Target: GNAT family N-acetyltransferase
Amino acid sequence: MRVNPKKFEINNLIYIIRSAKEEDAQNLSEVRVQIDGETENMDREKGEAYIDESGFKQIIRSDTERKNNLFLVAEANDRIVGFSRCEGTQLKRMSHKVEFGVCVLKEFWGHSIGKKLLEESIHWADSNGIKKISLSVLETNSKAVKLYQRYGFEVEGILKKDKILSDGNYYNTFLMGRFNV
Model:
């Protein structure tokens, strides 16, 4: 599905949140690899589960065609600096919900890009009959957990010792959900 682009100016940065286009595919492939290497908050390490340009084109095409999928990008200075996806399913019993994920290049943290991607995703979901948004977040990512809670997400479960980080320790993952009645 597609949404109308929105422009934001936060902390002297002007950026646009818009639906992903097939022309974004190569840039998205590069940005995803970079983000994965900048933080341990993501599931992947740099280069793992690599998606090339054609893979992203296929994802964008599919997300555009499906009514319960949404692929957003944040664009600043003519480049993609972050993105988010809401992915639903065609299964009738689970068609009321989507899974949300977001990532932003580290040099653009502090400009509310993740927050705006979340807000736009929630608005889209609420406007299109999606009743539940689910996500997973590493327990150590307290800033993200607090943001999600401010938007009505609750911890629904904990995957104990779910991820091993570079310090050799295991960490829990919070499963969070927001239900719109």
Q: What stands out?
A: DSSP finds four helices and eight strands in the chain. The beta strands are 6-10, 13-19, 70-76, 79-87, 97-104, 132-138, 154-164, 170-179.
